[in-house]
Amino acid sequence: MNKDNKAKINRTGLSRRKFLGLAAAGSALSMANPSALLARSAPAPINPVLTDYVGRLCYNENPLGPSPMAIQAMSDDLDMSHRYPDWFAESLKGDLADIHDVSDNNVIAGCGATEILRLCAFAFAESNGNVVAPNPSYSQFPADAGFLGSDVYYSSLNDDHRIDLNDMADRVDNDTTAVCITNPNNPTATVLAADDIEAFVDDLPQGVVTIIDEAYHDFVDDPNYESAIDLVRRGKNVVVIRTFSKAYGLAGARIGYGIGRQSRINDMRAWQIFSTVSRPSLNASRAALDDIDHINDTVTLNNQAKQYCFGYFDLWGLSYIPSQTNFFMVATEMDNSDLAAALSSRDFYVRYGWGMDHHIRVSTGTMEEMEGFIDAMYDILNQVHAGGYTIPLVTALDGNYPNPFNSTTRISYSIAKSGQVKIQIFNIRGQLVKTVVDSYLLAGKHAFEWSGINQQGAPVASGSYFYRMTAGDFAQTRRMILVK
Ligand SMILES: Cc1ncc(COP(=O)(O)O)c(C=O)c1O
User: ∠ at Cα 278 (277, 284), nearest 5°?
Assistant: First the structure.
């Protein structure tokens, strides 16, 4: 935060001591000297940055953009766009095999980690079996496995927001076909130690494959962490997933890959359609692999951004989860949907949910974005504390909790303007299951509970369901998973 901003904050009239009273319960109050903090956090300008999408701190993207070498490689090949790319990303797979010191047969590349996770579900989930995954965590694999008819057993996180491997192991039974770990975890940004993962893998029944999603690998600096690709090299029943969407800054190009035991990669290939990685994306990713400086700049900026924000959180007494990724979670005494709405009214977009009522998840951005974010947080919390702040009402389908759920889930939504609102639940084939809301509602926050009962009053089967809200021109759809 520069001097001008600081002066602005001082004028708001709330003393720092009072402001500390906003701290989330349990956090330690820091007596850090603000000028030391300012000196420490002064950002070195890194690269010219994108001016578009400013404040989009909700998708864990790279604020520096793609590597210039990747952009060049895409441009150089544009006039070949009439030709199909390699059918199964062979050229990229060769490079990846070299970098990771595995054979080409251990590599599969696709349209983002998203495609690779889905291929894992096709290959490893069975309708008469189950998979085990933590919650909250990245939910795509268990959701896809559920789609395909597998049972899904969810384990919990520890008190320090790490995936609880003992709890995961306890949920594995004779019908378990796969377990999925996100390391570092999304949304909590915590990591598991390499030794703990290896011991966990070694204790699993032989046929159970471990999927380890390392989307945020490049940001980790915990010395106990190590990529699980070494487990693949040592022949273990593991598939590791990586993406070019995060540190490599190629989220829009859609490239991800898996490194796994050869037999497992073959199982996945059987389900893959051809040419899911486009020519420009293949070229971009191969060039990006060579641009070590871009990765270093990205990691440096990410660390600066986190250090800057954490410095203020310490000063203000807000509790946050130490982060090993390019996003972090911070807690305030505000309801997190209110805080997210207040931030979005100032053009900062963050995520919340996962059954964590007071945490928001914030992606790191440029230093300018982080300064704006910190200013916005300060202003909002300051005004709330002074009692003079009205939470801006937005129209939004806030989400449901718990999700996944066993019997009942609570769906929350808010309406900025009074009017007719409709919320309907659909199954994965798009068939209407139930109209749950169809009435004129007053502006404000609303919620209802759904217990998996359809329009005819009968219980519905386990699986994924979509719920869609329409209010005037507004329409939004979300997904929930019923696990019986
Ligand atoms: C843990 C994790 N895995 C996978 C993905 C999806 O990555 P991709 O953009 O490569 O499909 C994300 C995206 O946010 C993620 O957080």
Answer: 90
**Is position 421 within any domain?**
yes
Distant-in-sequence, close-in-space partners of 471: CB < 8 Å, separation ≥ 6: 395, 415, 419, 420, 421, 422
CB 259 within 8 A of CB 242: yes
Domain housing 135: 68-290
Extended strands (E) in 248-347: 256-260, 319-321, 327-331
User: How many Cα neighbours within 13 Å face the side chain of 42?
Assistant: 6
Distance 441 CA to ligand 1 centre (A): 37
Q: Are strands 107-110 and 130-134 parallel, antiparallel or unpaired?
A: unpaired
pLDDT of residue 52: 54
Q: Give domain status of residue 329, yes or no.
A: yes
> For the segment 72-115, what is each residue's pLDDT rounded down to a tens digit?
999 999 999 999 999 999 999 999 999 999 999 999 999 999 99
Q: Please tell me what DSSP assigns to residue 47.
A: S
The pLDDT assigned to 279 comes to 96
One domain for residues 149 and 190: yes
Q: Judge whether 391 lies within some domain.
A: no
What is each CA distance from 9 to 12, 30, 62, 234, in whole angstroms? 5, 19, 29, 56
| Nearest atom in ligand 1 to 137's CA | 1
Give CA–CA dist 204/179, Å, rounded. Answer: 9
Q: How far is the CA of 182 from the centre of ligand 1 (A)?
A: 10
Boundary residue ending a domain (342, 368, 386): 386
User: Is the pTM value of this prediction over 0.70?
Assistant: yes
Ranges of residues in the chain whose predicted pLDDT is under 50: 1-51
Residue owning the nearest CA to atom 15 of ligand 1 = 215
**190 contacts 184 by C-beta, under 8 angstroms:** yes
| Count of domains for the chain | 3
Is the same domain home to 401 and 277?
no
CA of 80 to the centre of ligand 1 (A): 29
One-letter amino acid of 34: P
In the listed set 386, 416, 440, which residue is the last one of a domain according to the structure?
386
Listed in sequence order, the residues at least 6 apart from 176 whose beta carbon sits closer than 8 Å to its beta carbon are 129, 130, 131, 132, 153, 205, 208
Question: Do 130 and 177 form a contact (C-beta atoms < 8 A)?
Answer: yes
Helix (H) / strand (E) containing 316: helix 292-316
Q: Are residues 416 and 340 in the same domain?
A: no
Domain presence at residue 350: yes
| Letter string b/e over residues 206-223, b meaning 16 or more CB atoms within 10 A of that residue's CB | eebbbbbbbbbbbbbeee
